[in-house]
Amino acid sequence: MSFSASVLTLYPEMFPGALGLSLAGRALEAGTWSLEAIQIRDFAQDKHRTVDDTPAGGGAGMVMRADVLARAIDHTSPPGDPRPRLLMSPRGKPLTQARVRELAAGPGAVILCGRFEGVDQRLIEARGLEEVSVGDFILSGGEPAALVLLDAVVRLLPGVMGNAVSGEEESFENGLLEHPHYTRPQEFEGREIPEVLISGNHKKIAAWRRAESEALTRERRPDLLGAHPLPK
Q: Where does S-adenosyl-L-methionine bind (predicted)?
């Protein structure tokens, strides 16, 4: 069964976007995964197709209405749909490679893209939405975040990457940032490829790459070392 993604959005024209190109695009064309972008406004019931209203208690901006979103979700994900329901939100749990792998191993996902000030909390609770964040910053809406999440997931689907080992050695897969990479030419503006990488000694190359990964992680993301202690 292929991975099935349903995206609820006010801007369905943003999809597939970059997901229609390169590895993800070829996999989409091949049927390895499927994508439908659903217009939330189609589930509004007034002539203006209203999807938002002023926040209870006052304040700036608008809030996406629970009743409209509930109709959209219920239409897209009826009872029995095994796919998790995700809400792209800056207050959600940070997206990790571990969660990406879990999603890639599942049947797909229903993804709600928030806009304005956010989504009525009652909708989040009533429909069991999992709030997911792609970083500690604010976007204009959940659509770019949904594209990021889907790109991360789709590349892990069976057959999408030509070399499965490529995915296993990347940043976050083993709790470390990825080691530096080099290729021809041997010399570039006075900088040489490290001698060990052209030695042909695979044991030394593996040790060098591990040491470089550890050094980079200590320098740039020491928090990862606390979450994934290095073996002694």
A: 114, 134-139
